[in-house]
Amino acid sequence: MSHMVKMSPMLLQASIAPALAPANEVRLVQVFDPMGTQYPSTSWQRAEELVLSNRAEWMPGRGKGELSALQLTYVPFMIVAQVDPTQDQMGETKSARARRHNVATLRKRDGDLCFYCLNEMTREEMTREHLLASHTGGSDRNENLVLAHARCNKAVGHLSIAEKVRVRERNLARILLTAGPDFTHRLLQQLKIMPVEN
């Protein structure tokens, strides 16, 4: 008397894989996450373990009936760091993360006003401006950096530090002479020239 065993797709995949695996067990299996990102290859034995534990599924290979790739059912964060150590899990590079942190520090110090036109900026509009340009030896230290609109940054980029400060002073004088007292008072507080009243 023969018994029929009902096999789940996972068990069927795992039972087919050894038959389709090459005789040379050294051959590696390509590994992809659910979004299609490729990771370092793994052994056939490890691939079978991942399939049996519901952490991966076999993907069709190039040849008919060939299984040569594995799709993970999860995103392996530890492997992401191994694939590209300059990026975190959100895909942000170390330099982008440092720049974002630097802008946050400058905002805390200077507020959200453009250094030159003294108008408020959104985070997306902010650029880091080197008072002493990088190409002339200016550093990336906060003492040499201010926040400015991209258009303002471009307009004064070729000027000396003294000329850049004069542009700011002219704009501040123009605002103080033409704006109403409430706006002027608020601007002076934002520039930390006048203390904020509680």
UniProtKB/TrEMBL annotation:
The keyword Nuclease applies. One of its GO terms (molecular function) is zinc ion binding. It comes from the Bacteria. Keywords: Endonuclease, Hydrolase, Nuclease. InterPro entries: HNH (IPR002711), HNH_nuc (IPR003615), NA-targeting_endonuclease (IPR052892). Residues 102-154 form the HNH nuclease domain. PANTHER family: OS07G0170200 PROTEIN (PTHR33877:SF2), SLL1193 PROTEIN (PTHR33877). This is HNH endonuclease.
